[in-house]
Every structure is written in structure tokens, then in C-alpha cells.
Amino acid sequence: MSAPTLSRRHRIRRGALTIALTTCLGAALANCSEEAKPAAGQSPASPAADARLARLAQQAADTGSLGVIVRVDSGDGKPVEIAKQAAWTKDDHSLAAGDQFRVGSNTKTVTATLVLQQVAQQKISLDDTVEKWLPGLVKGGEHITVRMLLNHTSGLGDFLLTPQFLPSLTGQEQRTWKPEELIATTPEQAPPTEPGEKYSYSNANYEALGLILEKATGSSLAELIEQKITKRLGMKDSFLATDAAWPAGKRHATGYEPDAKRLKALLSGTVDLPEGVGFAGPERPGDNIDTTAIDPSWSWAAGGMVSTARDWQRFLTALTSGRLLPEAQMKQMRTTVEAPEEGGAYGLGLMRVDTPCGTVWGHTGGLPGYSSEIYTDATGTRSVAVLTLTNFGIKEKKAATTNKALVEAATCHMLGKAQPSDSPTR
Length: 426
Description:
Strand order of the largest sheet: 2-1-14-13-12-11-10-9
Oligomer: single chain
């Protein structure tokens, strides 16, 4: 990458497709000084600050993000909602702050919450082995615990870059994957690591956790999500996707990715993609592809949920304020391992990001055409969501810079700190 200050979400690690398509972990929320003070007579939540945030959102949309939804809830009952998009995308869809969106790996926080609810009821133990629950399914499962799956220290690699799976990831192949099949295609980490030895993000961990949940409860993952999370919290626009379809009568955001030629250039020096390998979908202006119809159901417990900014902030604030888990399990969830490649730390399905503006908790997510960063403060009083209508597209230098500036400003706004400068660092 061209600049060390780029968001962690925009760096390439463990293979470009792994980070850019599904993990999208974190944002380097820098340049937001802890000591920064509002300008004279102006609070961080002032109309002028809201207007600056809207300008940054439009700037990000016009320089490669294509479309952004920003929702900031400072806990005062007056959330800021912004939806901005590049002019040509309006031919496909007029973006609104309440549009449904694929939230990708944010789903991991829901899966982890369900597991810890079962821990609280003593139906699952964090020290249970994978072999106990899924005999013969996971290589070395007798040495991998539920805790290791949750905090990505299992030693399992990821299935995303395997030749068998790549066509489904890009939408070139229509195939319904079972979690067991994805786990079977999961390679060893390179170099191999022993269970519990170090953090290394893998979607296979959460595919296994979904299976464990279903076996422990006798219910499907979709049923558990509805019963324990979405229905309980009134999240009427949130569900686990089982195919590429969007609900009739509901608004949803249109997502985009670079075409094959742009994609190959973007990943040059990191992954040598064969000519013509790219995302499936209609061609759009600016050498983009409409990826809205790519089936995300394979991501399941690792990233299959559809939601809205408002719904997901409702979930995350309920979680971090202690409404979904007993205190003991919330403490376990916040017990982190160092995750230097993310620039922060990772708990049990929950990221801790320490910024100069303060500590935030949450997760991030990405699927073809959709990228999201959603955080709360430590008490669950304040929350912020930044949803972007492209994932790979914000790897390009200018797009990465303006998107990062937007995330920084929105997070500082959420924490009640003065926003960084309107002009992104170049």
C-alpha cells in the first residue's frame, strides 16, 4: 500500500481477497487528538460539525467510496443520519440512511453473543474442544477449544483463497455451500501454528461455531438469531441471508466493485490474478461492476447478516451496555488477545480499537460491494456506523484516504471530540 496511515481495513494481508472481501477488520482511527477541543462556541455535535461530516461523506462518495451511509448516535436521542452517493449511482438507487445492507463480518459479534449466552446457561464451555461438539470434522479439533474459535487463535487457516471457493466468492459460480464443506476446504495456516499460539483471522472459526450452536441448542442459527437477538431488540430490518435475494417491499443499498482489469491492477504485487478474473454482475460506469446479486449465504455464521445502520447500532449498544449477556460473559467477551495485524486487539467476537479519541468496541465487515465499520463507546451509550457501497474500491489511494477521513470524523463525533480537518491527509 502507498501510505502507512491507511485504514487497517484497506491494507492487504493474508492474501488480498481474504481481507478485502470478507474480514475488513478495523479502521486506523488516527489524527483525532485526545486533547483536541471544539472551536470557540462550537461543540462537536453542533450543526456546523454535522455539515462538515456531510461534506466528508460526499467527498468520500465522489472519490471512490461511491456511496456512504453515516449514522452517529451520541446518546442524546438525536442521531445524525447522512446518505451520500456518487451522481451516476442514482440511476441504480437513491441511497437512504435506512437502507438494508450486507454487514458481513459484523455477524461474528452476533454469533459470539449467542455462544456466550449458552456458556452462561452452562450448555457450552469455552474450554470445550471442537472434537467434543463436531467429532471428526475439524483437523486437530481435539486441541482446539471454543474460546480459540471465538478469538481466532485456533490455528485454522481460511477457505477464501482456495481454488474450490474463489469462483463462489466472486459470484462467477452459483453454488450453495454447507459449513461442513467450507471447513473441509480450509487449509493449514502458512506457516502452521499450534492452537492457542497466536491470533490469525479465519472465517472457518465461525463456520464451526455456527455448527456448535445448532448442535447445542437443537435450533437453526437463523432461529437463534431471531429469537435471542433481532426479535428481542426490535431489529425489524435484520436477518440471516440464505440466498442472494433481498426482501420484497424493503429498500436495499446497491453495491459495487472494480471490474476485472481494475481489480488485477489493484492487487498487483500482492496477488497475481489471472486475466479476466473478477466479480460477476452488470457493468457500470467508471469500470465498476454491480455486485448486489452475489450470493452471500456461504458466509453464514461468519458474515451472512443483512441489517441497517440503526438496527445494528441498536444491537451493539444493547450488547456493550450489558443487556444481552451477564457480567461474567461480558467480561469474557472483552478479554482480548493482541492482534497486531489489525492494529488493535480481539476479544470473543468483539474488537477493541484504541484511538486517540478514546476506546471503541465493535467489529467491521465486508462482502462484495459492501463494507462497514460499526462501533460503540465502552458503556454502550454512544455508537457510530459507517457503511460503504464498495469494498475493494476503497483500496485505491484516493478512495482509501477520503474514506478513512470520514470514519475518523464520524468516530470522533460519536465520542464527543472535535473532528479532524475537512481535508484528508494526502
